[in-house]
Amino acid sequence: MFKTIKKLLGVVPTDEQETDKEAIEKIEKAERVKTVTVKPKEATTAKPKRMTRKSLGTLTKLQIDELAAEMFGVELDRRKTKTAMIEEFMAAQKKAK
Questions:
Q1: Rounded to whole angstroms, how far apart are CA atoms 85 and 78?
Q2: Is residue 35 included in any domain, yes or no?
Q3: pLDDT digit string (tens) for 38-65?
Q4: Is the pTM of this model over 0.70?
């Protein structure tokens, strides 16, 4: 702990100063990386995500309606209960399978 405090205050014994200088020299002599090539991951044609009753239960009625329109092109009746909307969504999902 005292060594750390001494380093922070600049009170470092001479042998530790020399190792710091050596480390700095190694860093300065190191090769620099010129280019880095990153290859994108190949796109896979993933199946559409299947929704479960539990995952639909966390959404609002509006979100369920929008999701059904986006995934299956089906307009759900938002006047119905959330449970009824989930059942309609599951039927549309099964039909689209």
A1: 7
A2: no
A3: 888 877 666 667 889 999 999 999 999 9
A4: no
Number of structural domains the chain divides into: 1
Residue 43: phi and psi, rounded to 5, are: -75, 130
In 10-75, where does DSSP find H-type helix?
14-29, 53-57, 61-72
Residue with tokens 């922070």: 8
Q: Contact 89/76 with Cβ under 8 angstroms? A: yes
pLDDT value of position 17: 58
What pLDDT is stored for residue 59 in this prediction? 94
Rg over CA atoms, the chain: 31
**Measured between alpha carbons, how far is 85 from 81 in angstroms, rounded to an integer?**
6
Residue 8 within a domain: no
Domain span holding position 75: 53-96
